[in-house]
Amino acid sequence: MSEQVPHRPFWKKALFAVMEGNVVTVTVLAIFTAMVIGGLLTAFTNTAVLNAWGVFFSSPWHAINLAWDTAIGVYIELFEGSIFSPHTIAQLFQQASMSTALHDGYLSSVFTPISNTCLQATPLLLTGLAVALPYQAGLFNIGGESQWIGGAIVATYLGYGVSMPPGIHVIVCVLGGCVGGAVVGGAVGLLKATTGAHEVIVTIMLNYIMADFLAYLLSFHYLMQAPGVNPISPNIDSDSYLPHLFGPSLYVNVGFLISLAAAVFVWWLLTRTTTGFEFRAIGKNPSAARVAGVNVERNWVLVMVVAGGLAGLAAAAVIQGTDFQLTGTAYGTYGIDAITVALLGRGKPGGVVWAALLFGALYAGAPGMESITGTPGSIVDVLQALIVMFVAAPPLIRAVYRLRTTRAAGVSQVLSKGWNA
Amino acid sequence: MELELKGITKRFGSLVANDGIDLVVAPGQVHALLGENGAGKSTLMNVLFGLLQPDNGEILIDHKKVTIHSPNDAIAAGIGMVHQHFMLVPVFTVAENVTLGHEETRPGGLLDRRKARADVRELSRRYGLEVDPDALVENLPVGIQQRVEIVKALVRNANVLILDEPTAVLTPAETQDLFRIIRELKAGGTSIIFISHKLKEVQAIADTISVLRRGKVVGQAAPTATEDQLAALMVGRDVQLVVSKDPAKPADVVLAVDGLTVTDETGRIWVNDLSFDVRGGEILGFAGVQGNGQTELCEALMGLRPIAAGQITLNSRDITHATPRRRLHSGIGYIPEDRQEDGLIGAFTVAENMVLDVYDRKPYASGIRLNLGAIEKNAAERIPEFDVRTTSADNPVGTLSGGNQQKVILARELGHEPKLLIASQPTRGLDVGSIEFVHKRIVAARDGGAAVMIVSAELDEIYALADRIAVMYEGRITGFRPPTVPVEELGKLMAGSTDAEAGAPGPPGPPPSQRAAAASGLRSDEGATREDTASKRPGGEEGEK
């Protein structure tokens, strides 16, 4: 079975890798395809473009150009709202001196879009990891939402209910959020380990329970409701705000660093520790892991504790970084977005970082794009859905781009394995 | 109908799986394809059945060239195939499975179930298949499921039937039944292509034997050829079918089992008040028909199954209630019966699998930190030592052949010098070359002073390895014998006779001479009357990929 690999120049190898349709290629092509379809969608739902088609026969180029400009315009605005905008650079260079530029905020406005992207990516990255890590251990964590709420309740309470010295307060709140999420996550693991309850069912049900529990807490003044009639918590102390990384005019805060550190931690845990070895072993073949002396049940609990802690950190980052108080709907769609992020990142910590940054960029760019082009911001949700759909269907992407059908089994496995893993 | 393959060549990248193969299958003949795992047998049959397209060569039926692009073409040409892993819908009845894919309908688009049932009954009667058309497939034992596959082929008018490793999933008794059916089919004019790597079976059933090695037909043989000749053809060198070993030098008792009883959740007793000792430097072989509690015994010894009563002592330490990890730490090496399910993690690399149950010990870990360097170094040393054929230690172990997977397990379990080695079906599904290797290593472990416990359904293996034989029947040991015991006597013990009925009990010590009975060509057929649930799972065996 000695396989002779013929020597090939580098570019040929690279081309070969692309043609074989490996994981990265398929993902990039999936994103590209989603953008093409998203572009068509914006062009053909825009009223100006539709009117132009009405006079297609008198001035055909007009309609085509308009459609093109509309589609491209959306992506340009998304880019300028999330990465950087050339106008801000131009303005920066029009300033008389560097010091006035700094003082008047022209420099920081150059970095505003990227800062917003990082800010949006922070909770996505943390909750994405909270799905990706259990996935590696064979568990499908649909409960990002309930774990997020658990973390948010604790972080918020510690934020307004307890007074502490400034530096310590912020740390205690972050750790509290982590613990709050870990308790909810650990409950899932414990139920699975002791009663055999399927984690998908348990996490989905806990999402309802925790959402209603939050609503309950926010409806009584002696619990967590702020004075007034609204279901909203008091504001947390300014001591417990996460410090901004680059001064007050850029919103990106320490939470982003925490999320990156968490990604590195998860990677280290999975690849460099005996715990991670056990997680991966029970994920790939629980019976062989058991024979090899691994305590499968204990690891189920442990991995859910860690995952819940990550989701709790995401809540702390949101409460202490941008919201500063807890509302009855603050959990938004974090739980579901987390699954999309983990899917796009193929369950790997590195992949989750890229996926979270991509979706963070889409969210950061959406408001500006909407106000400038008039295209509804929900196009971003459509893009997100299309990307995940194509990533989840590698054979479709390979067929469209005529890639060879070796490898790239990774993702179909993600989806098909999820429920019974 | 005469089937002829001419110059079939099939390449996968740089690997030539079939290299100019010529083969003629005469009508009403059983033509055996013998070869090691990876010799190209399955590839050739997949080409013939239209699942793969050959790069060169042609297929002729009755001297006319045919092109087979899909299994449908193959079926239309009268070729049927029974895959190693059955292609049945478990929740359908036999008749529904048989009719699936070419359902006949009555007016109004209704399924003609009556016709399907009649077809099954008619074929069943003609060839003595004894298949009930209304039985649910999931309730049938593996042997009967295989017959359903045969019926499926016959209903579609197959004149040539390909059986891919048909005995891999069968108990010895089921194998005998299969052979009877093959003879009936042959008498009815059907040609059979019988793929196997088991020498005895091929000798027993084949009219002509073609031996494949590395994608080429290296020889034709008559079934009268000796095992040694066939093995040499298959492997390309002389093979020791029975490893030579010195008499055992038993030392102190390492494993002492006293009154062990194991029940399952339903309360069924699998191991019934079992007591035995294994000493350092000896091999105790457990003979018996599968499903008589051997699997449960091994799992209970490893702590994978709750123990209802009794005591297990390892080196005079009580480990009755120890966790699997503690048992591993105290020096037990375990080769599980089902290597893919219990022994390996297919998606993990070879290097990772080589430390699968020692990853938490020095030098592979310090605290919770894995020492990847040590894991790599271990793999780099063990791979040549145990002759694991892989291009890299980083390949997923699932991509290796069955024999090489087993070597990975051996490298892991023997590489750390266990005090007690428990090996369950250590050579199941392996080809002769690999069996020789595995046997040698197990004997070497014994000579190194380890206590060894072997469980095997192959009597040959028991005779070849054991210094002492314990026979299990329905969870009890019906007798201890030296390996000089005649097969007939073992057979009686395996069928449940007690010591007294089966003849004079030998002393339960090591026997004077070792190899006397080794050539006997019987498998554990005698007692296989009851259906054992363990054999209901298909799979676990793998051929060449």
Structural key phrases:
heterodimer; A: 421 residues; mainly alpha; ABC transporter involved in vitamin B12 uptake, BtuC; 0% strand; disordered N terminus; disordered C terminus; B: 545 residues; alpha/beta; Rossmann fold; 3 domains; six-stranded mixed β-sheet
Oligomer: heterodimer
Largest sheet of chain B: 6 strands, mixed
Main beta-sheet annotation of chain A: none
* CATH fold type of the largest domain in chain B: Rossmann fold
Uncertain runs of chain B are 505-545
Give the N-terminus to C-terminus distance of chain B in angstroms: 29 Å
Low-pLDDT ranges of chain A? 1-6, 406-421
How much is the radius of gyration of chain A in Å?
A: 24 Å
Mind telling me the C-alpha Rg of chain B? Answer: 24 Å
The name of the CATH architecture of the largest domain in chain B is 3-Layer(aba) Sandwich
Describe the protein's architecture and organization:
The complex is a heterodimer of chains A (421) and B (545). Chain A is mainly alpha-helical and 421 residues long. Chain A has helices spanning 10-19, 23-45, 47-54, 60-82, 86-94, 98-103, 106-136, 144-161, 166-195, 199-217, 254-272, 274-284, 286-291, 296-323, 334-344, 349-373, 379-391, 394-400, 410-417. In chain A, helix 11 packs antiparallel against helix 14 and helix 15 packs across helix 16 (349-373). Chain A is globular and about 70 Å long. In chain B, 30% of the residues lie in helices and 24% in strands. By secondary structure, chain B is an alpha/beta fold. In chain B, helix 14 (402-415) runs parallel beside helix 15. Chain B is globular, with a radius of gyration of 24 Å. In chain B, strands 6-9-10-3-11-12 form a six-stranded mixed β-sheet, with helices on both faces. A six-stranded mixed β-sheet of chain B has the order 18-21-22-15-23-24, sandwiched between helices. In chain B, helix 15 links the parallel strand 21 (420-424) and strand 22 (451-455). Chain B folds into three domains: 3-235, Rossmann fold; 253-331 and 418-536, Rossmann fold, CATH 3.40.50.300; 349-415, no CATH class. Chains A and B meet through helix 12 and helix 13 of A and helix 10, helix 11 and strand 20 of B.
